[in-house]
């Protein structure tokens, strides 16, 4: 998995959307991230009172995996850019066929 900066992640994500438009799908996950890469053993010391959590965002399409870490101060900027990317990228979705409603005959 490749850890990218926020701007690079959005650029690569738009490329993934273009590739997935022809065939395939994209899986996205978001989770809270505290910056640690391996667990800390419990030695009796208290945890940090006010940790600065981050957000880990991952995207996968086929065998290509990308990820980024978003700081608290950058969440609003990233969400705006991400929502704009989604608005431009999901316009190729197929419409679902709605089942026809059966008319109820009046007696």
UniProtKB/TrEMBL annotation:
Subcellular location: Cytoplasm
InterPro entries linked to this entry: Signal_recog_particle_SRP14, Signal_recog_particle_SRP9/14
Main location group: cytoplasm
Pfam families from the UniProt entry: SRP14
RNA-binding is among the record's keywords: yes
GO cellular component: signal recognition particle, endoplasmic reticulum targeting
Any GO BP: SRP-dependent cotranslational protein targeting to membrane
GO molecular function, one term: 7S RNA binding
SUPFAM superfamilies: Signal recognition particle alu RNA binding heterodimer, SRP9/14 (SSF54762)
Keywords: Cytoplasm, Ribonucleoprotein, RNA-binding, Signal recognition particle
Similarity comment: Belongs to the SRP14 family.
Function text: Component of the signal recognition particle (SRP) complex, a ribonucleoprotein complex that mediates the cotranslational targeting of secretory and membrane proteins to the endoplasmic reticulum (ER). SRP9 together with SRP14 and the Alu portion of the SRP RNA, constitutes the elongation arrest domain of SRP. The complex of SRP9 and SRP14 is required for SRP RNA binding.
Oligomer status and interactors: Heterodimer with SRP9; binds RNA as heterodimer. Component of a signal recognition particle (SRP) complex that consists of a 7SL RNA molecule of 300 nucleotides and six protein subunits: SRP72, SRP68, SRP54, SRP19, SRP14 and SRP9.
Protein name, UniProt field: Signal recognition particle 14 kDa protein
UniProt organism field: Danaus plexippus plexippus
């Amino acid at each position: 998995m490749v850890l990218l900066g926020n701007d690079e992640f959005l650029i690569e994500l738009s490329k993934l959307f273009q590739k997935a438009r022809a065939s395939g799908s994209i899986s996205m996950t978001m989770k809270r991230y505290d910056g640690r890469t391996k667990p800390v053993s419990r030695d009796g010391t208290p945890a940090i009172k006010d940790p600065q959590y981050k957000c880990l965002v991952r995207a996968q399409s086929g065998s290509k995996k990308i990820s980024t870490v978003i700081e608290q101060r950058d969440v609003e900027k990233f969400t705006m850019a991400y929502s704009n990317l989604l608005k431009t990228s999901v316009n190729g979705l197929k419409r679902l066929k709605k089942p026809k409603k059966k008319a109820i005959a009046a007696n």
